[in-house]
Write a structure and sequence with these properties.
single chain, about 260 residues, alpha/beta, Rossmann fold, 10 helices, about 30% helix, about 25% strand
């Protein structure tokens, strides 16, 4: 897949970069010298076998972990020393940073709560219904954008798993991210839901940059502009799906099963 960059974006416009990113845990090096460049207006996938360091990289980028060494630059600004909430306010938001949805609130109420944060009225449950009703048009637009218009009055607990994931994405979009980080968005989804969420990610990426960790290689092949392959905490290869799937070292890292080439 080779999409044109988002309007107004150049292919060489780097929104997120790491330099020598390293994380050690009590003598064990989970991430070692990772240099990563995510270009604005692309869908960039981070893949690799289990234990490759993908989630640790995500945790470092979003400051859930502090790096042992290295540098993180977002939008031309060094954010290595910033805390997670500060990074989110700059526009780099991880899919679960609004946390799981509130199960006993409606779909619309969940999205309204998320919408309060950019307005500086975050999580004011005591505000009057009339005041919060002003958020309904924007909430309903986000709900419709993720395909949940018919479910807006349902409680989150009533939603099937795939639709709950869509609601989580809607609450994340309410934070108006410039760069959206998705950690295994297809995990636990059935075939129909995978198609729905993949379509949603493609639509989101029309106006945002997406960095995702994903095990479903069919999804990676279909959605991604650039793929970075990690193994044992290091970058093994980077390029288009055709480039990385044809790399002998990448195939070996996936245990020689042909999984990469075969979209397993």
């Amino acid at each position: 897949m080779h999409r044109p960059p988002a309007e107004g974006c150049a292919l060489d416009d780097v929104i997120l970069e790491t330099q020598g990113l390293t994380k050690e845990f009590a003598g064990f090096t989970a991430v070692s010298g990772v240099d990563l460049k995510v270009r604005r207006g692309t869908i960039h996938a981070l893949i690799g076998p289990n234990g490759a360091g993908k989630t640790t990289v995500f945790n470092l980028l979003t400051k859930f972990l502090e790096p042992t060494a290295g540098k993180i630059v977002y939008g031309g600004r060094d954010i290595t020393a910033l805390r997670a909430p500060e990074v989110a306010r700059l526009g780099m938001v991880r899919s679960f940073q609004i946390s799981a949805v509130f199960p006993h609130l409606s779909v619309r109420e969940n999205v309204r709560i998320a919408l309060q944060r950019p307005l500086g009225t975050s999580f004011q449950f005591w505000r009057s219904e009339r005041c919060l009703d002003a958020l309904n048009p924007r909430a309903d637009a986000l709900i419709a954008a993720v395909g949940l218009a018919d479910d807006r009055q349902s409680t989150a607990a009533e939603l099937p798993y795939g639709r709950k994931r869509a609601l989580e994405i809607a609450t994340t979009l309410a934070l108006e991210p410039e760069l959206l980080l998705l950690d295994e968005p297809m995990a636990g989804l059935g075939h129909e839901d995978i198609g729905r969420i993949a379509g949603l990610i493609r639509e989101i990426a029309r106006s945002r940059t997406v960095l995702m960790v994903e095990h479903n290689l069919s999804v990676v092949a279909d959605l991604s502009d650039i793929i970075t392959v990690l193994t044992r905490g290091r970058v093994l290869a980077e390029g288009s799906y055709a480039q990385v799937s044809g790399n002998a070292e990448v195939r070996e890292a996936y245990m020689g099963t042909g999984a990469v080439a075969g979209h397993a």
